[in-house]
Fold Ca ion P-type ATPase.
Amino acid sequence: MQWSDVRIAFIIIPTKGRTHRRRRDRTSAKAMTTSIDAAAADEDPRRISHHALSVDDSLIRLEARRHEGLSAAEVQARLAVHGRNALPPPPRSGPLLRFLLQFHNVLIHVLLVAGAITLLLGHLVDAGVIFGVVVINAFIGFLQEGKAERALDAIRDMLSPRAQVLRDGHRQEIDAEELVPGDIVFLASGDKVPADLRLIEVRSLRIEEAVLTGESLAVTKATAAVEAGAALGDRRSMAYSGTLVAYGQGVGVVVATGTRTEIGRISTMLGAVRTLSTPLLRQMEGFSRVLTWIILGVAAAAFVFGIALRGYGAAEMFLAAVGLAVAAIPEGLPAIITITLAIGVQRMARRRAIIRRLPAVEALGSVTVICSDKTGTLTRNEMAVQRVLTGDGRIDVSGAGYAPHGGFERGGRDLEPAEAPLLTDIGRVALLCNDAELRLDDGEWRVLGDPTEGALLTLALKAGVDPKLCREEWPRDDVIPFESEHRFMATLHHDHAGRARVFVKGAPERVLALCVDAGALDGGARPLDVGAWERAMAEAAGEGMRLLALAVRSAGGPLAALSFDDIERGGFTLLAVLGISDPPRAEAVQAVANCLAAGIRVKMITGDHAATAQAIGEQLGLARDVQTITGAEIEAMDDARLAEVVCDTEIFARASPEHKLRLVEALQARGEVVAMTGDGVNDAPALKRADVGVAMGHKGTEAAKEAAEMVLADDNFASVAAAVEEGRIVYDNLKKTAAYILPTNIGQAGIVFFAVLFGVTMPITPPQILWVNMITAVTLALALAFEDGEHDLMRRPPRDPGEPLLTRFLLWRIVFVGLLLVAGGMGAFLWEQAHGASVAAARTAAVNAVLAGEVFYLFNMRSFTASVLNRDGFCGNRYVLGAIALLVLCQILFTHLPAMQRLFGTEALDPAAWLRILAFGVAVLLIVEAEKALLRVRARLAGRGDH
Ligand code: ATP
């Protein structure tokens, strides 16, 4: 097994949307482009060139309906004909090759050479056992690797994307695999296009088609037909499966799914292969190279020493040197590291954090700062309009959630919507300048779309607005969708009298700047008292409410489309500012406290108003009376100044995605290890730059997910904190397994070394050594991969990312326990011999003594420094008990079964010998516990507790 076996090269198959793995298949984008052109040239004549058809022709050919979509029956029929919208998984390297790769490790090479020479020297049994153990080890590595890969596969399957479609007249979200030709699909910025689409509507739609064409600049899309012979990159009327929506919105009709998509046709040569190796695995690879040379050096020295000074024969000494080498080689360690990482990934998935790239598992353990979005991550994202600020004063709104039940109150008195016509106007604008939908599912009101907009729909219903009537009365002609950068959304409508209106909703400072007066939809406008509005807004924001302003303007003449200039022209009438509550998640409050206790700073980066952010930050326990920096202030700072203030600021308000990138860089410049959350397409650069980019599973765009190392299944900050905790556990467990396995090697190599040094009979033979190495690695050490984490795990400061896996403390522990095992093995051998036992029986006692020491040391290693002399210490990990039971069974067979006796040269032991062996094991336990107690005292005196 190779250290780098956890390297997983995987490609992204966008149609299926899952990441499938393929080994070492690197294809350049250029090569792809060429062949795409070739593919386009010999276009299948049966395929219709939808890009060259008009929208209507395309819809007719596909028997699709723009405004209703397909019916459920049509979908079923088409699914039967076209199959699911998925690509077959790419072929993997065969099992034989994967098995052979297990031998590709320098430590194993040394063992193979040792085995070959042992064979040449005529020691058939010894050579047989060496080869046997190497093969068994490879087989175990092969099985474990398979398990690890399956675990990662299953986790990646959790990330299959969804698509927004129109079916039976309703917009709905479905698994992208269920798309069929003729489906009407909605696209928004950040989406991955789920199938090949003929675009039928676009709104500033730009698509990044690098996967298909190699062109990294986003292409602006349109609905007009293009020439039939246009190259793929020039077909602006199409959106191709697997490409990413960089900006804007669009609607398209599916023309091809699965293997019939452009990407499906070239999938056998799809690029974007990423080979993964974690920093730790690279560290271990280097370690194993160094170790090999040390082992070979010591073995050669022993060989020369034995012949020159002890007068052994060359053949005999060679066997001893082989014994030394095989004793020292930790051949089981790579497999254990792999499986420990894989177990960590699975545990994280159980806690709703899905790892996309393996190095994140390690990086998570050393995170020092988590930068988190506010809305939906730290807060519940269950929005409700609580307050309506108007020119006539404040109106409070009652009711909870999205249910349209509740009423209005002004100055402590109930207010009927009929009494306040302005409320109806506000409801209308809230409903019309809105892309969300409310649904009553199983008695529960849910939002389809943006929760902020959902809250506005509920307000409209509470204000007595009939959505259907209102939309018919004021049909929408155009829209500028909401984007975090410009912080507003605008829609253009006309009524039956031909009057056109522009409605705007957005961040108050943005909208207020566009307004000239305040009033209702039709007349009654008064001058804008900016001071009074700002005071009312500051009060609401101080209570943690999100603020959203609504404004209206007559279009002043016929207008077919909206442009940014139309909005920036201003001249709007402010209708209201809405105060929307979005309380913190209870579990986020707890998670923030846990992070702070673990020495991890939590920073909130939000697009919301500074006062809102500050209030929520206080409710979350982030910090009290701390300074809040706004996006505008970030822009005014140079990098050096930002790096100065970034560590002492916990809240960044009115921040846009590009500020996130600068913040990550500033934090990294200060030596911090940063985890950063994000969801939008523009968050991708910051997510990529962060040490651990974290994307939201629900509201996150595909673009953000692809840039991230980790995806949160529940969009919850608590899951980030949980992943950090698991990251620390994994790293601890890796340290524990290494610190557990290596003393066995030192112990046995030491026994051989001292035997040569003092010229005594070899207390343990090469086959026996290999047996001990293998049996400890597959039973005992594996149990440590399942450890749950020590009680002080989240009270320690974060690990220094530059710290080696084997710290000085661990090296000391390894050598210390190694020497204890030397003493036990040698002692057992010499004692038995001195009391008349045969060499074989004395060797059997030595092997069992070493293993008894290992069994009890396993309890010690459940904690680095805390005592395990308690119930939890012995019974806290059922895998430990299971592994010990298995080992005891194996040792009884090893000692008493005639076949094993013949193979390993062992002999049965009497009960007294077993008792002495047991006593040695208990002694190891107590001695290491005594060492820990000393360390604890020393740490207390020094005021710290490091390992
Ligand atoms: P976070 O970055 O923590 O998720 P956020 O969701 O509040 O915070 P944005 O989505 O960028 O940040 O919103 C910033 C501001 O834009 C909000 O305070 C609100 O005033 C306004 N806003 C939010 N959603 C919409 C929308 N759908 N339409 C119009 N304006 C909106």
In short: The first strand starts at residue 10 and ends at 13.
